[in-house]
Amino acid sequence: MFATLAPILFQATLETLYMVAAALVIGTSFGLPLGVFLATSGRGELFESLIFQKTIGPIVNATRSVPFIILAVAIIPFTRMVVGTSIGTSAAIVPLTVAAIPFIARIIEGAVREVDGGLVEAAQAMGARPMQVVTKVLLPEALPGIIHGLTLTAVTLIGYSAMVGAVGAGGLGDLGIRYGYQRFRPDVMGAVVITLIVLVQMVQTSGDLLARKADKRNI
Predict the structure, then answer these.
(1) Residue 156 neighbours by CB distance under 10 Å
(2) Cβ count within 10 A of residue 157
(3) What's the pLDDT score for residue 105?
(4) Is 105 exposed, middle or buried (0-12, 13-18, 19+ CB in 10 A)?
(5) Does 218 have pLDDT greater than 60?
(6) DSSP state letters, 43-92
(7) Are the C-beta atoms of residues 176 and 165 closer than 8 Å to each other?
């Protein structure tokens, strides 16, 4: 029985890793600059823009407030426009990414705001431009918090990827529903749960290790 299940479980695991990795990379590419700008666009800050704060901030909050499974269904037309279909592993990346971007943005914003303001003032006093302050001071100092946040995001996306299995996205969630729940196979359900737990533990452990290495206080 395990010999039959193993190839299917392995393929589903690869699909889950593909969805999570793609959504995390794309989400970070948008969420990182958005989070930095949210943290530095307030009154008297590096990139002061009160209009941005008053418009983008509520949009980010609103997106984060929508339950993921509802978001995935609500943006089906957008998913079809982007990838040409609303079913499958590649299609699942779209709602996963849309959910990840505001999540990552707020995490980045929080990490950047934790940086000592004195460091920013010192850099400005030495003539550093705003982008230099961001790249040379804010991001390096906030790196441990950013890594912790991205680790949390990856763990959350693993859970979300299991949810999109309910709408035909493939991966471990789809395997658990179609082969486990619908066919009354508790062994399949158990294997899926154990695999998800192992993935989460691996991601969390790796993220904690990277964060410790990036923390200057541990040097």
Answers:
(1) 18
(2) 25
(3) 93
(4) buried
(5) no
(6) TTSTT--HHHHHHHHHHHHHHHHS-HHHHHHHTHHHHHHHHS-SSSHHHH
(7) yes
The neighbour count for residue 9, using CB atoms within 10 Å, is: 19
- DSSP helix, strand, coil percent of the chain (3-state; round to 5): 85, 0, 15
Q: What is the pLDDT of residues 19-77, one digit of tens each?
A: 999 999 999 999 999 999 888 887 777 777 888 888 888 888 888 888 888 888 888 88
- DSSP 8-state code for residue 149: H
Q: Cα 215 vs. chain centroid, distance in angstroms? A: 21
86, 100, 94: which is closest to 28 by C-alpha?
A: 100
Angle at which helix 89-113 crosses helix 2-40, to 10 degrees, equals 40
pLDDT tier at 179 (50, 70, 90 boundaries)?
Answer: confident
Residues 6+ apart with CB under 8 A from 171: 12, 15, 16, 19, 89, 92, 161, 162, 164, 165
Structure tokens that stand for 169 in this block: 């996205």
The CA-atom distances, in angstroms, between 111 and each of 15, 19, 39, 108, 210 are: 31, 25, 9, 5, 16
Phi, psi of 174, rounded to the nearest 5 degrees: -65, -40
- For 173, the token pair is 């969630």
| Widest distance between CA atoms in the chain | 68
The mean per-residue pLDDT over the stretch 167-177 comes to: 78
**Spatial distance between the Cα atoms of 134 and 30, rounded to a whole number of angstroms:** 16
